[in-house]
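Two proteins, back to back. First:
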Amino acid sequence: MSKILITGATSGIGEALVHKYLKQGHNVIACGRNTEKLAQLTNHANSSQLSTLAFDITNTDDTEQAIAQVEQVDIIILNAGDCQYIDDAIGFDNKLFQHIINTNLIAIGHLLHFLLPKVSKHGQVVLVSSSVTIVPLPRAEAYGASKAGLDYLANSLRIDLAKNNIGVTLVHPGFVATPLTDKNTFDMPFKITSEDAAKRIYAGVAARKSYLHFPKRFTYLLKLIAMLPNPLWQRLVARSIR
């Protein structure tokens, strides 16, 4: 069975992925900041299959020390991230912007630096982005920019890692019920559970797909909107958000 490292493993999609991979008999390294939740995860799982690493991905020293404990992995699923919105474009919140870019993009670079040399031959890198990159949305300047950067990173990395027989999977989830989306005050069409998202990611990674997007009734709708003339789709998006 494979060894899987998952960041953001203490809640939402990450936690659901931990349970999914353990259920299928794999060995899992669950990573997160919350030591209490990591301990709870260990208590509810097969301890012989599960190990945990507690660190903050935005702290480079913590990340280096934690990953130093990892010998080799077959699949790394970089799922940890944050979502906050720019509520006042004129009074652009540069500190929030920096935090989101650091958490969702810069920290991924640090993780890749320390983890890629440990990925086994024919291994996989999975980057969990967002369907927000398909169509720009109001208030998503920070979150969308960070995930758009992640998209480019994944697609470029896939080319360069091909010679090492390491696959790269980019994941575009739609709305998924997680502690992050629970804070949203707007309608979230076609929202699915974390367990459903984990099931789809597990199947796509097992098939070594380069791109996953779901639920398709939502992501295809966004792709269709993105094909419309700019003024038209901008009005549609603004109206839907209101």
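And the second protein:
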Amino acid sequence: MVDTDFWGEGEDTRPRRRGSESTAVDLPVQSERSARRQRKTRRRGGAAVAMALVFLLILVGGGGYYGYTRLDTLMNPPDYSGEGTGRVTIEVAQGDYTADVGQTLLEADVVKSVKAFTKAAGTKLQGLQPGFYKMRRQMSAQAAVTLLLDPKARTGVVDVSPGKWSSEIYAQLSKATGIPVGKFKKVDARSLGLPASAKGKVEGYLYPGRYDLPPDATAEQLLKMMVSRFKEETRDIPFSKGAKAGFTPAEVLTVASLIEAEAGRPEDYRKISRVIYNRLNIDMMIQFDTALLYAWQKRTLDVRERHQAIDSPYNLYTHRGLPPGPIGNPSVAAIEAALNPAKGKWLYFVATNPTERLTKYAEDYEGFLKLKAEFEKWLKANPQPKN
């Protein structure tokens, strides 16, 4: 059910299956109906061969130019020769079958006929992913199949990792599309379908995952695509459940972003969530380095006292409670952990071995100091760039 407190809407209460972390799915080049047809064909193979012989006899007996050309077209459908020229981008849509792809290629003048393409493709395209592909015009069907299967042909694919800052996502999108970063920064957030609680800021609502970017899309359209994905992926999450812990739906997302930024492994999500809950319950400062680095817009594992000098509400060493908004764009797993913390009395945690993404937990300051010593040992063996 749509959380009306979050989105301010409730017109669609139909249950929806949450998607995966990626938009890429196998291309269904063969429908169940066609599969059944093939099974029947195998059972009636003898009859099919007999009918084909009768058909050939009619063609030969009836003769005629029409019969010959018709048979030749079936056996040797029109086809271009060579590797083609120029460049054209085509889209393979989710759910397309081989013939659908062939039709798309035909309309773009990549291949000369759908029949030639499907004949050359056979079952080779069963692993083809939906997305955009750079092709050439007037290619032989075999050349078109070969190019589709070449990973270099696929274009506009962006993988956004959970926890990325919006500024980092802008840079990724800019690199993939050529659209200047400044264009993304200037997009009017009110046009993206954000909830009122976002207060016009996209941070937290650009859902991580794999995206196929349309070649002619604008900066606004690309960001809207990501916000729409966030909305779809989180549609079934009961954000209002956070009220039991005193969190608004927007604060649940903020907690999730802190969890995403700190977690090294999936099993850490709910434990870090518990640390946040425990600290807030005793009015203890959260003091997460990741929030401090968000204020600096710098990435480093070596956080020192000099970094704590920044005057920012995201500096949780000087400001109590949660930051004013998300410090990145979290996954569904982090959001669910924000609503369902693990049971425990932990107040501290330290990524003692970032190389192996190992995090350890402590219930008191003495335990924290021991964990910190482990991290300092790792840091000495793995010096970080000065920031």
